[in-house]
């Protein structure tokens, strides 16, 4: 299945299933005795989605030897990668709110539970944007287990290729207040021009003092679909509706650090290798890494 400009999904299909996959990684990282992250909502959310493969993966019940190109070492590398990624963006939000920001927008929020688990200061409003079925599922599931947001949570169920700034503003977003933005695990699922438009819209909506965090995956530029298919294991054979090679938009695109700097964002990039080193975790060898390889985590503030 390839992408279409108006494709839709739930958490078990297409791009939506990638949200369940990364949440399973967070659930596994949460159980890791090294305790790098604590996301108690990842596990019930993944269980509620009910894709057997991800539930078993999370519970350590997959027969990894039976899955082509998957191994215990590769699985641990994925979990470690999710741990350092989650911690990087958690720390970003804590720093942004310590700096006085009280308005937060999480783009492509998927099964991100930060609105329920981070220690937001009083008065913080967290907006979450994702496709309607994704938003509805998370809200209903977390309400069902009695979870309460730790900030005022406002949902904006809309596709990010549509007029999301209008929908965000209609939901109460204040264009005069500084905002902490997050686009995590999103950009590779957007065409290059949509990535630029996303940052143009964010910039136009950002009051002075705003902050931004995202990541850039250089491997998307010279992405080799055959290699990715070969290395990703045969998810389809195991009942999972994900063919990463057909979900991402490969080819030339602007480097996010350069693009944001051209829009007056004072951002810095930190490699995932560096984040592993900071946590004292060995970075995966290339053969055990994600086929897309290195990731640059990016954060900073609007200048002027
Ligand atoms: C890999 S998941 C990441 C989810 C979340 N940010 C996280 O890190 O857990 C990708 C997410 O992007 C969302 N997404 C991708 N393209 C989108 C679009 N055009 N409009 C709205 N959501 C989109 C998907 O629904 C999914 O939740």
UniProtKB/TrEMBL annotation:
Pfam families: LCM. InterPro entries: Ppm1/Ppm2/Tcmp (IPR007213), SAM-dependent_MTases_sf (IPR029063), SAM_mthyl_Trfase_ML2640-like (IPR011610). GO terms for molecular function: methyltransferase activity. It comes from the Bacteria. The keyword Disulfide bond does not apply. The keyword Methyltransferase applies. Keywords: Methyltransferase, S-adenosyl-L-methionine, Transferase. Its EC number is 2.1.1.-. GO terms for biological process: methylation. Exhibits S-adenosyl-L-methionine-dependent methyltransferase activity. Belongs to the UPF0677 family. NCBIfam families: mthyl_TIGR00027. This is S-adenosyl-L-methionine-dependent methyltransferase. It comes from Mycobacterium europaeum.
